[in-house]
From TrEMBL:
Pathway: Secondary metabolite biosynthesis. It comes from the Eukaryota. Keywords: Heme, Iron, Metal-binding, Monooxygenase, Oxidoreductase. This is Cytochrome P450. It comes from Daedalea quercina L-15889. The lineage of its organism: Eukaryota, Fungi, Dikarya, Basidiomycota, Agaricomycotina.
């Protein structure tokens, strides 16, 4: 009994010392941070710093220069740099910069250690095995799924017109979101969500996905927030309601079933000749998960380099989270831009109609120059992610291409950063930088892609001289997938319909959320939406 008391007392003393030490660290941090003399916005809130302004931070660089600091949680300094050399250094140095706990807050319990959140060797191993599944040849094979689902969406909107008359007022974001969910289900793991089917049955996985994401249980709850301050708390389990726990279990069971079925199918492939037609069709599945499992089972991969079942399973929610709302919102912003520039909509339609098929190949889609320019300009001006965060895991010196002047007037050609400091990668600010794109950087001008400015050549983005898919070894693995999906969508939609905004363009703003959804200033309480007036396009 006495021994138990001594253990408990020692534990309580250890916790008290740890808390005191953390508190002293927090209080002293602003006075010792190596970023403390950088210019930046003032903050009057010790707890949240400038975090509530971060979504509007794209013009900070114009105010304070490309490299600045702002206040993060608990008075900490966060480095914000739009300097292309600094970004190149950070994005290509994954040993020194990782995704911080803060950026994992909303999704970590859900996606597990899939490609999005894995770090270090585990990430490199997953990426090596997964890269081939996202290559051009593999995406070419998926183009038919993108076009079929885009056509299904036109049918849903046409039936709404038949019911309500023309033009019909339709929330295009809702339809696009269902379409991209169906696509990621089929192209990701040959799973039919069937969410576009208005007469469809309830879908277990779709419901579980909505429960987990709609519940806020994965959001920034107070407990999760405290875990940032006191990391040992992460060893305590996060409860969540019974409904959310059930939804997690359903998703896990479905994921496991899919992985098991695909493994069996691959093992049976050698016997394909003896299989019936249905089984043979299944054995030819070309979805991302099948390709990944196949690559993982390849005899040329040493056993030590193979992914575990747990790692493979984690890719199912990873694809859902990373590949669904990003593409639907990007396409919604493309329709927004085309509806306020009707002459561009007409030009795009004419280009797309000149192709005499409803089902072009990926290569035919890629040969449409204005479609390509519209997609590039949409992703530059309206990237689905505004920012991302990294944490310095070691003290580092970051080189700058443009020297920065600190608040004492001293000039620096580098920034020193302390281990544990956060770095904001400002995707939107770089994409909209007037220094890079010129004075018209905030305008939607697809023709600018005819001649890319020299300054844009230095942007360390993986695609299109922009940061929308990020750069370095943690850039978006699915960028080819989403580009072809967006092309298939726009191709099909502008050939079928004419789009007008149903509200004044000033009413549509980017919602402050991880993915930038359109929302109406006049109806913020209704959540994200993009209402449009749609009428069928009458071909001559
Ligand atoms: C317009 C559509 C998309 C955009 C703008 C986009 C953007 C991004 C960005 C910015 C990142 C880096 C995030 C960070 O590190 O903080 C990322 C990572 C990732 N994306 Fe995408 N994405 C899109 C579509 C997709 C699709 C369709 C898929 C899958 C089918 C996908 C799968 C992933 C994965 C797995 C990662 C993690 C990569 C890694 O850490 O190695 N994305 N994406």
């Amino acid at each position: 009994m006495e021994a138990k008391l001594v253990v408990l007392l020692s534990l309580a003393i250890a916790i008290a010392i740890y808390l005191q030490w953390r508190l002293i660290q927090l209080i002293l941090r602003p006075y010792t941070s190596s970023l403390r003399y950088l210019p930046g916005p003032t903050s009057h809130n010790w707890l949240l710093g400038n975090l509530t302004q971060v979504y509007q931070s794209s013009n900070w660089a114009e105010q304070y220069g490309d490299t600045l600091k702002y206040k993060g949680l608990f008075g900490s300094d966060v480095l914000f740099t739009a300097d292309t050399r600094a970004l190149h250094h950070i994005l290509n140095n994954t040993a020194a910069y990782c995704r911080p706990e803060l950026a994992r807050l909303g999704i970590s319990d859900f996606v597990g250690e899939g490609l999005l959140l894995a770090e270090g060797e585990r990430h490199r191993q997953q990426r090596r095995i997964m890269n081939p599944a996202f290559g051009p040849a593999q995406i070419r094979e998926l183009t038919d799924i993108f076009l079929r689902k885009a056509t299904e969406l036109t049918k849903v909107w046409s039936s709404s017109m038949a019911e309500h008359g023309e033009p019909a007022r339709i929330d295009v974001l809702d339809g696009l979101s269902k379409m991209t969910l169906d696509v990621i289900g089929l192209a990701g793991f040959s799973y039919e969500f069937d969410s576009l089917n208005i007469h469809g049955r309830r879908n277990e996985l779709n419901e579980a996905f909505n429960t987990v994401f709609g519940s806020g249980a994965n959001g920034a709850s107070l407990f999760r927030f405290l875990r940032l301050l006191f990391p040992p708390l992460k060893y305590l389990p996060v409860g969540g309601t019974k409904e959310v726990r059930n939804a997690h279990q359903i998703m896990r069971n479905i994921g496991m079933r899919l992985v098991r079925e695909k493994k069996d199918m691959i093992l049976n492939q050698g016997k394909a000749a003896s299989l019936d037609e249905d089984a043979r069709g299944k054995s030819n599945q070309r979805d991302l998960l099948t390709l990944l499992i196949k690559a993982n089972m390849d005899p040329s991969i040493p056993k030590s380099q193979r992914l575990s079942d747990e790692d493979i399973l984690a890719q199912v929610p990873t694809f859902l989270v990373a590949g669904h709302e990003t593409t639907s919102n990007a396409t919604a912003w493309a329709l927004y831009a085309l509806s306020i520039e009707p002459q561009m909509q007409t030009r795009l339609r004419e280009e797309c109609l000149a192709l005499s098929t409803d089902y072009p190949s990926m290569d035919e889609l890629n040969q449409l120059p204005f479609l390509d320019a519209v997609i590039r300009e949409t992703l530059r001006l309206h990237p689905p992610l505004n920012n991302t965060l990294r944490e310095a895991v070691t003290d580092d010196v970051i080189p700058l291409s443009k020297p920065c002047v600190d608040v004492r007037g001293r000039i620096h050609d580098h920034v020193k950063i302390d281990k544990g400091s956060m770095v904001q990668i400002p995707i939107l600010a770089v994409n909209r930088s007037k220094a890079i794109w010129g004075e018209d950087a905030l305008e939607f001008k697809p023709d600018r892609w005819g001649k890319v400015p020299d300054a844009a050549q230095k942007v360390p983005g993986t695609w299109g001289n922009m940061m929308s898919f990020l750069g370095g070894s943690r850039s978006c693995i699915g960028y080819r997938f989403s580009l072809v999906e967006m092309k298939a969508l726009l191709f099909t939609l502008v050939r079928a319909f004419e789009f007008d905004l149903a509200v004044p363009k000033e009413d549509v703003v980017r919602q402050n959320a991880s993915v930038q959804r359109p929302i109406l200033l006049s109806a913020m309480d209704q959540g994200s939406q993009l209402p449009m007036l749609i009428r069928p396009y009458q071909r001559a």
